Amino acid sequence: MSFLNYFYIKTLKFDLINKFYYTNLKKLPDLKHIVLNFSCKTVELKTIVTHLLALKLITYQKGTISVSKRSNLLLKIRKGNPTGCKVTLRKTLLMNFLCKSFNEILPKIKNFDKIKVHQKVEKNAFSFSIKDTLTFPELAEHYYLFNNLSNLNLSFVTTTKTKKEMLFLLKSLQLPLKF
User: Fold this and answer.
1) Residue 165: what pLDDT?
2) Could you tell me which of 29, 39, 52, 56 has the C-alpha nearest to residue 156?
3) What are phi and psi of 39, to 5 degrees?
4) Stated pTM of the model
5) In Gene Ontology terms, what is a biological process of this protein (predicted)?
6) Count of Cβ atoms closer than 10 Å to residue 92 Cβ
7) Label partner for 50 (CA 20 to 30 A): which of 15, 103, 130, 166?
């Protein structure tokens, strides 16, 4: 069991019960899944494959290619063309990725103060991006392949009902947030 999972079961559940009012204890807020997403500016096969390989090395899980649902003349994108790739992490892979990012990735980012929280925080989702993707040790080993990666977008999806619950859950998970 991951130390974050143990922390959620033993400590965070009691904090949530004391802070907020719940009629059913089975409906306590939880982190449902994390979506890691690379968006590609070009439709070249080489860039999409490198982004998929980077996601595979980071998460140890296969990624899927995102395709455009409709054409956009300004961006010169046709309907059905690939626009990026994504991976959804759940349960044990989610906890392993969080442990890895807290202990290895976030401390290595240069000039990292805190994650900036904008007013766009929804009641059950929170997202930010990592600009320097080479802080992941798996990608740094193969610099020649991954030196042109775009930003990695991370989206945390929870089962919270209000914005206050969402921010309390993220703060108690020790995410370095800046308001």
Assistant:
1) 87
2) 29
3) -110, 130
4) 0.84
5) translation
6) 11
7) 103
Report the Cα–Cα distance between both ends of the chain, in Å, rounded: 32
Residue 159 · residue 90 · CB < 8 Å: no
**DSSP β-bridge partners for residue 66:** 84
* Residue 124, token pair as written in the block: 């059950």
Domain annotation for the chain: domains and CATH numbers: 3-12+33-173 (3.30.1440.10)
The alpha-carbon radius of gyration of the chain (Å, integer) is 18
Tokens at 11, concatenated: 């400590």
pLDDT at position 32 is 92
Residue 58 — φ and ψ, nearest 5°? Answer: -75, -45
3-state secondary structure at position 162? coil
What SS3 state is found at 124?
A: coil
Residue among 175, 8, 176 nearest 91 (CA):
8
Predicted local distance difference test score (pLDDT) of residue 73: 64
Dist. CA 179–CA 177, nearest whole Å? 7
Show pLDDT as tens, one digit a residue, over the chain (179 residues).
578 888 888 898 889 889 988 888 888 888 899 999 998 877 788 889 999 999 999 999 999 998 888 877 666 777 877 888 999 999 889 988 888 887 787 777 766 666 666 556 677 888 888 888 888 888 989 888 888 888 889 888 989 988 888 888 888 877 777 66
